[in-house]
Amino acid sequence: xxxxxxxxxxVDVDGVVRVWNEAAASLYGCSVDGIIVSVFTDLFETGLDDxxxxxxxxxxxxxxLWEGEICTARLDGSRLDLHAVIAPVFDGGVFAxx
Length: 98
Hints:
Elements: E1 9-11, E2 17-20, H1 22-28, H2 32-35, H3 40-43, H4 50-61, E3 66-73, E4 79-86, E5 89-91, E6 94-97
Antiparallel strand pairs: 1-2, 3-4, 5-6
């Protein structure tokens, strides 16, 4: 996944970043070394209110995709508007992250 032309970010059930490819590093301005094992929401805002985040997580935990617009910021603080597709990851039938 390292060389895919789109940003790929994998987050476990605790919100810890486990996958971060080169495109994600370029987009967010943060290298793989600077992000893996960090809690994603500690580093980046989603631009969504708490209710919307809860609904998003519940939808993905049920096994459904979430797709929408997110206004966030790069590590340097500059604004980043993006279209995100968030898909569930299951391990042995158990929700493992997204």
